[in-house]
Amino acid sequence: LQSYDTANVTLYSAVMEDECWNGTVLLEDSLGLQEEADGKALLRYRSPDLQGDAFYCLEIQLNHISCHLDQIEPPSYCFLRSGPVWISSRPGIAVLFPMC
C-alpha cells in the first residue's frame, strides 16, 4: 500500500432492486486508503444522509498500480460491488424524536 493509492467510490440509487447498477448516481468520490496493523488496505466510507424508500448500491474501483497493468488480468479486488440494500425513509416523527 502506497500513500498515493486511492479508491473511486460511486453510490447508486434505484426504485427496483435489479436496476440498482443502472440507477441514479448519487455520489462519486475518491478516497484515500489506510493501512491496517497487519498491512492490509482499509477503506472507510460513510454515505451521506439518504432519502430512503429506495435501493442503494456501492461500487469501488481501486487505483492501485496492479489494477492498471495491461499485461495481466486485474486482480478481483480492483473492482468491488455491494449488493443492493433497501433503506426505508424515516417517519416524520423522527424529526422530533430522533430515536424513531
What would the keywords be for this entry?
100 residues; mainly beta; two-stranded antiparallel sheet; 0% helix
Write up what this structure looks like.
This protein has 100 residues and is an all-beta fold. It is 0% helix and 37% strand. The chain is built from no helices and seven strands. The strands form two sheets. Strands 1, 2, 5, 6 and 7 form a five-stranded antiparallel β-sheet that branches. The protein has a two-stranded antiparallel sheet with strand order 3-4. It is globular.
| Spatial shape | globular
Q: Stretches where pLDDT falls below 50 for ≥5 residues?
A: none
Q: Indicate the percent of residues in helices.
A: under 10%
Can you summarize the main beta sheet?
5 strands, antiparallel
Topology:
Blueprint: E1 6-14, E2 24-32, E3 34-35, E4 41-42, E5 54-62, E6 79-81, E7 85-87
Antiparallel strand pairs: 1-2, 1-5, 3-4, 5-6, 5-7
Summary?
The protein has 100 residues and is mainly β. The chain contains no helices and seven strands. It is globular.
